[in-house]
Amino acid sequence: MRKEIEKKIMNLASENGSSDDLFNLINSISYIKKMIKNGDAENQYLECKSPQHPRLYTSLKSELAQIVSSFCNSGGGIILWGISTTKHQHSRRDILNSIEPIGYVNEFAKEVNSTIPTLVTPEVNFQSKTIKKKPDSQDGLLVTYIKPTKNDPVQVINDGKFYIRINEEIKIMPYEVIKRMFSGEDSPDLVALLDEKRIKKNDQGFWILPVIISNKSSKAAKDVTVAVSLEKRSGCAEIISSGFRDSSDINPGKKIFIIDLSKVIHRGMNIIAGDIKIKIRQKGKPILSITVYSADMRPRAYSYTIDFANNKFSIKDADSFFLY
């Protein structure tokens, strides 16, 4: 039985489509009514919750932690808040029964979104959306998509356990599966960050932007190269760097800085690759693009839209994508 569980989970961990597709499909009250009419049940990718009060009390937080861990470790999944279920007499499955809208659903969504990162480790990827009959209604449903982990298995902080999902059941992950998931990482996962709290303006009028590199994988990153370029820079009077070398002369039409890092980057040991220094001439929203290269990792670019209006700094938009 344990070997069957291991095989199923290792297969599910590499599948992204089913949970992602389900999140995209659940986008209206009418679609959820259709699910109820069809007799849909909780399954590998779907968990329904109908809290009596729009709050995450201690018992519900504990349950949510296990759900998040199990979905992350088993191909991802959807938590549908505001739907009650009924146990089917013969199949013993939890059948979607009725819609029970959550009061002040926007506030409840904020609580769920702020709580999830405190329940598990390492950091997980998730997104939420609310569904209402009317846009200005305070009541509605919440759909939370827990994305599958691409790296180490996800652990519940409170009890220190790893969970998996087999159909609609949550189980403690067998040791053999934990060991295989930890040893299964074969590439680093480098992230380029801009921390607004660390960005300052110096006496010469330059905004100093430290470029932080973080590794989310247990696989150490070696032979790391970081390239930083600036687009839509007409409002910038001067752009210089500290740590990076200016490679604009061999990249015509671009303002680009590059650094080769000699240090090995381990998870939990963030480093500052260097500083980009920008002096602003007029209002504008330049785009800072940071591309990270490393051995055994697909190059990834991070794009930050920066607003320097009213002598203040803020990040208005952020995006990331693989180069190939």
UniProtKB/TrEMBL annotation:
<feature type="domain" description="Schlafen AlbA-2">
    <location>
        <begin position="42"/>
        <end position="173"/>
    </location>
</feature>
<dbReference type="Pfam" id="PF04326">
    <property type="entry name" value="SLFN_AlbA_2"/>
</dbReference>
<protein>
    <recommendedName>
        <fullName>Schlafen AlbA-2 domain-containing protein</fullName>
    </recommendedName>
</protein>
<dbReference type="InterPro" id="IPR038461">
    <property type="entry name" value="Schlafen_AlbA_2_dom_sf"/>
</dbReference>
<dbReference type="InterPro" id="IPR007421">
    <property type="entry name" value="Schlafen_AlbA_2_dom"/>
</dbReference>
